[in-house]
Every structure is written in C-alpha cells, then in structure tokens.
Specification:
It contains 15 helices and 9 strands. It has helices at about 40-55, 65-80, 85-95, 100-105, 115-125, 130-150, 175-185, 190-200, 205-210, 255-275, 300-315, 325-340, 345-350, 355-360, 365-380; strands spanning about 1-5, 5-15, 20-25, 30-35, 215-220, 225, 230-235, 235-240, 250.
Length: about 375
C-alpha cells in the first residue's frame, strides 16, 4: 500500500487485469473507494485531483450520494456565479420540501434517479395547470444533472430524453401607441411618470429599473447605464448582476432625459430637507415613504412597482391580466411592427443573450416581416 496525502493507493487485481484501488475520506470523514485500471503514475495523479477537490469542498463521488447531498455541493459551486435571486430560487427548488422535488428525490441515490421519476414530478405540476412552474423546474433540474455528469457523480443525465413542457400561455401582449398614451395620461405621480416612461423607452426589466443609481445617469451624452439589478429576497433588498450579465449604455430621447433630470432635482431637494446629501450610489427611484431617512435610501420594492402598474393600467381601461413586464414587450412591438427595425437591433436593445432568442420569443411580431420579404423576393424574380 502506498500513502498519498490523506488517501492511499492499493494494488487491485482480477483474473483478467490489474489496477489500483484509491481510498480517501471526504470532509465529513466518510471513506470513499474508487478502482481504476491505469498506471501507478496515473493513479497518483487521479488521487491528487480527488484530494484537491475534497479540500475545496467540490468533490462528491460515491454512487450512494443522495440528491440532497449533491444539492449542497451544487449550490456551493454556483453561489458566486448566479445573481442572488437565482441562487435563492435554486436553494428553494433543490433543498426545501415545498419545492415539490425534495420530498420525492431527497434521499434517492443520484445513480438511481430515473427518467420516470422526473416525468412524474413534472407531470404533477402540469396536471395542476402549473406549466410555467414545470418549465422553470425542468431548466433547474437539467442544469443540476448536467453538472453531476461533469463531476462524474452520475453516468448519464436522466432528463436527456425528456422534452421540456410546452408553454400554454398566449403570445406576449403589448400596448398599442394609443393604449400606452391612455395609460400614461392617468398617472398622477411624477416619479411614476418618470419610471414607467424610462422603462418603456429603454425596454428595461423591473429589477434593472430598481437597480439604477444616480451615478448611472450620463449627462454629457444624455444616456443611462444599466449595470445591476435589484430584488427583494426573503424581505432583504439585494443588488445583483443583470440578467444574462448584460450591461448597456442606453441613449435617451430629449423628453425622457428632461423628465429624468427633473426627477433627480426633486429628490435632491427633498434630501436637503432631511439634511441628507445625495451620492452617486443612492438609488434613482428611492423609497421616500420612510419617516426617518437613513444615510442611504433604499430602492422601492419591485413588487410595489408591479402593483402601481396594475392600478394605473386598470384606471386607463385595461383588464387585470396586464403586467408591468408588458411595457418591455410594448417597446419590442413598436420597434418591430411600427419602426420595422432589424432583429439584431431589437435584440441588442433588449439585451438578450443572442438574436436567436429574440426571434424565438417574438416570432409572432416578425411574421409580418416574412410576408413582406416574400413579396419583395417575388417582385425580383418575376
């Protein structure tokens, strides 16, 4: 037997071949064994790699490791990679009984989780008419098992041949120019007017809007930089990365920029009343309803903006199915149908990861452009 750090290498022979048995203990003191049919030098390198991963808390190799065991390692691996809201969503999905997964898979050895088990879990949401939940959990689980394959926890992703549940929701809705003007005309608060116009013009997500600070305004070229998102996780406000890690400097039209400057002037005057000098790190849309102003204001909760949108939307005659995110869809609709802009321009403005995703998400808007293209080609080949 040869010792190597906290592990050991023993010769291992069968009738037909010879190799080595690697033995080591994980951070919990649990012993692991792996048999390899390679040279002794290669066996030493393999054990060295395993011990390094154990030291970093990254290694889970026993086929007896359960779903919950690997979930802990998986979350550690991605803690610094994901936005706070995405990390918390994965924690809820993979570790909490209410997520609809742990109670079925928690104690199951990773190697013994089958495609049928996953199908049954997804079907449970589908029959409850919770297809969006099923689609989201599908994405989380697929990435989870792919990472397990990479780390050699399992040999094959059990979701490999399971199709992603299809959405049953209709095409994205967007306000017409007339509907948007009606909506905007009923807004009776100056901060709300600035927020909803900027959100529509820039196609920003609500987390990006709440993540804006005073330092993000570029007065020289009349633009605003999207650098972060803001969300509230379990009652705590958290700044994080933007979706797709996409940062952008968005040029603004004259009217929107003037509205933005007026808004900044108003909150600056209010801050002076509280003897609170503003800094570039203060939120652009702060919660002014606090009785005692702290050293730094906090952004308004994104859910509050959603409620205010609902209030003004219904006041303007829209039904209660409209959501704040449809202001973003409205901007895309205007760019495609009213301005006939190139899909690449649209994709860059809404900060999608690639133009293919934009085309897939807004295929119904681009269908008119396809008809127009066919007619033009027909004229050329007549």
């Amino acid at each position: 037997m040869a010792n190597w750090g906290n592990g050991s290498i023993l010769e291992h022979k069968t009738k037909n071949k010879s190799g080595f048995k690697l033995k080591w203990r994980d951070q919990k003191g649990k012993q692991h064994v792996k048999i390899v049919y390679i040279s002794k030098a290669e066996a030493r390198l393999e054990l060295r790699k395993i011990l390094s991963q154990v030291d970093k808390g990254e290694f889970v190799t026993s086929k007896r490791d359960s779903f919950s065991d690997f979930a802990i390692t998986f979350l550690k691996m991605n803690r610094g990679k994901w936005a706070a809201s995405t990390y918390q969503a994965n924690v809820s999905t993979l570790t909490e009984n209410g997520g609809g997964i742990v109670q079925y898979l928690g104690d199951k050895p990773m190697q013994k989780i089958t495609s049928k088990m996953i199908i049954d879990i997804l079907d449970n949401w589908i029959i409850q008419d919770k297809v969006p939940t099923a689609r989201l959990r599908y994405s989380y689980l697929n990435y989870f098992f792919n990472e397990a394959v990479k780390l050699e926890i399992i040999n094959k992703n059990p979701m490999l041949n399971i199709p992603k549940p299809r959405p049953n929701k209709p095409d994205k809705k967007a306000l017409t120019p007339k509907e948007w003007l009606n909506f905007y005309s009923v807004i009776d608060d100056d901060m709300c007017k600035t927020f909803f116009r900027l959100m529509t013009i820039g196609g920003f997500r609500r987390s990006e809007m709440c993540g804006f600070t005073l330092g993000d305004i570029n007065h020289s070229d009349k633009s605003i930089s999207s650098k972060r998102g803001y969300s509230v996780v379990k009652g705590q406000g958290v700044y994080g990365d933007t979706k797709n890690h996409a940062q952008a400097n968005m040029p603004l039209d004259e009217d929107t920029f003037n509205l933005l400057e007026d808004h900044v002037s108003k909150i600056s005057l209010l801050a002076l009343r509280f003897d609170k000098p503003l800094t570039k790190d203060d939120p652009l849309f702060p919660n002014l309803s606090v009785s005692k102003v702290p050293d730094r204001w906090k952004p308004i909760n994104p859910d509050t903006w959603s409620k205010w949108f609902k209030k003004y939307a219904q006041k303007s005659g829209l039904d209660n199915t409209w959501t704040i995110h449809e202001l973003r869809h409205t901007m895309v609709s205007l760019m495609v149908q009213d301005m006939n802009l190139d899909p690449l321009v649209v994709s860059k403005r809404v900060r999608h990861a690639d133009v293919g995703f934009t085309l897939n998400q807004y295929a119904h808007l681009f269908s008119g452009a396809q008809k127009e293209a066919s007619e033009e080609i027909g004229k050329l080949l007549k």
